[in-house]
Amino acid sequence: MAEAPAAQETSTTPNFDQKHPLENAWTLWFDNPQQKQTTSKFGQTLRPVFTFNTVEEFWCLYNNIKTPGQLQPSATFYLFKDGIEPKWEDPRNFNGGSWTANVPNRSKPLLDAWWLNSVLACIGEQFTEGEEICGVAVNVRAKGDRIELWTKTAANEAKQTIVGRELKKFLDMSEATKIGYQVFQEVLNSKTKAKDRYGV
Ligand code: MGP
Description:
alpha+beta; RNA Cap, Translation Initiation Factor Eif4e; eight-stranded antiparallel beta sheet; 4 helices; binds 7-methyl-guanosine-5'-triphosphate; RNA-binding; translation initiation factor activity; TIF_eIF_4E; protein biosynthesis
């Protein structure tokens, strides 16, 4: 009698070695200056932490670092497309700006949820205007934590409005809560706090 065939791997057998590529490679940056930042000194304590381009590497990183809610005030995480430095002066940011979402009620759980949701929206290419996205930052501050979504072409109001509306949706923000968009060149040139160029 013929021997029963050995159990074969089928197409439904998970392959745990397989990695799922992301459309872009991303770099996590960390900054935690001990003194108040100034425009001229910005960047001196900013460091790239890790670059990844697969889903698995992202979770490996995320699961092994602190969440923003565990960081001390003054710390910032930046997650940017690889090759873009999280500085207004980087050529890919220079003509851009950022949407700012201020976390209400000093809620650390909400801060962590907003950070994860905004990161997943970026690396999962959830924004319709994905080409516009440079990166996302989470600024942990005593005066109030915030998420900043940096985009490339500040002059294009239509595209920035779409990005801003989608950001609110991904953060589950109510329609009544407003977020503002600042233009980096206006921030750099203004002696006082620059006004928001757009709002949604
Ligand atoms: P911050 O850390 O983004 O905000 O910028 P924070 O701590 O909430 O302070 P505030 O000033 O916005 O109230 C702190 C300071 O760092 C800014 O005011 C700038 O002087 C400087 N800075 C921040 N960024 C992101 C840049 C940058 O990209 N380039 C330069 N040159 N300076 C920057």
